Amino acid sequence: MDSTQPLRPQSERGTFDLIPETYGRSVAGTALEVFLPPQKPIQYLLLAAHHGDEPETTVLLSTALRSILPAQLASAVVLAVNPDALARGTRGNLNGVDLNRNFPTKDWSPAPVHHRWHQDSDPRAVALSPGSAPLSEPENQALVALVKRLQPKMIVTFHAPLACVDDPADTPLGRLLSDMTGLPHVADVGYATPGSFGTWAQEQGQPLITFELGHESIRDQRTRLEPAVLALLRGEI
Ligand SMILES: [Zn+2]
Questions:
Q1: For 128-139, what is each residue's pLDDT tens digit?
Q2: CB half-sphere exposure, 115, CA atoms < 13 A
Q3: In angstroms, rounded to a whole number, what is the distance separating the alpha carbons of residues 190 and 227?
Q4: For residue range 92-130, what is the model confidence (pLDDT) as tens digits?
Q5: Is the pLDDT of residue 1 over 60?
Q6: What local confidence, expressed as pLDDT, does residue 4 receive?
Q7: Band (227; pLDDT cuts 50, 70, 90)
Q8: Catalytic residue at 137?
Q9: Beta-carbon neighbour count of residue 131 at 10 Å?
Q10: pLDDT averaged over every residue in the chain
Q11: 157 Cβ contact list (under 8 Å, min separation 6)
Q12: pLDDT at 2
């Protein structure tokens, strides 16, 4: 990794130097945006806010993206896979669908999806829908088309708050991200996730790592995680 590359002057990091491309529309008609590197092929596809109640994933990726020089960008970046939910603070999209249970996998299930309302000790009591059918949601339809078009060598999808690098294929990149961040390297999150994006990617032969942020403040996590995110953005690892 070349950590000697210059960063953008801090005074300029308030805004984006790159203009994102629209790759689809959400349920509410919101533009689904991807930042693309100037040169091709791309290294990684980095995704934040597939769940709208995980805004720290967007902040982490956004601040890192605004810290590098535009010409250094080697990966594609989606700051909000689920922008309507991010704007409203909900986990699911405007149809009440958990987008991470809506992919056309062998194990997709029409059963409701439950998650915790508050702490990890709470029962999984809040119900969302997995969608009326696999890939029923426009945000996921657009994402699948984007993945097929870009064919990244790895997808890194950011979630919270399990604090781990979920790398079912046990890849060198997953181990390196774990080493760089101190987050444990795990092979699964310990519960069934029918219709998940990760399972879909696995069935497609598309490498994918889930990068789970933890419980600390976003400021503390930025300090610890940003070097790894900068390296992913610049394709240095
Ligand atoms: Zn999530």
A1: 999 999 999 999
A2: 19
A3: 28
A4: 999 999 999 999 999 999 999 998 888 777 888 899 999
A5: no
A6: 67
A7: very high
A8: no
A9: 24
A10: 95
A11: 46, 47, 50, 197, 198, 208, 209, 210, 211
A12: 54
Q: Which fold has domain 20-233?
A: Aminopeptidase (3.40.630)
What's the pLDDT at 175?
A: 98
Query: What one-letter code names the amino acid at 15?
Result: T
Strands (E), 110-225: 113-115, 126-128, 154-159, 164-166, 185-186, 208-212
- Give Cα separations from 236 to 29, 82, 112, 157, 208 (angstroms): 35, 28, 41, 18, 18
In the reported structure, the alpha carbon of residue 159 is separated from the centroid of ligand 1 by a whole-number distance in angstroms of: 4
What is the bridge-based pairing of β-strands 126-128 and 185-186?
Answer: unpaired
Alpha carbon of 163 to ligand 1 centroid (Å): 11
Active-site option among 33, 212, 216, 226: 212
9 Cα: distance to centroid of ligand 1 (angstroms): 32
- 195 CA from centroid of ligand 1 (Å): 14
CA-to-CA distance for 28 and 16, rounded, in angstroms?
Answer: 24
Of how many residues is the chain composed? 237
Q: Considering all CA atoms of the chain, what is the largest pairwise distance in Å, rounded to the nearest integer?
A: 50
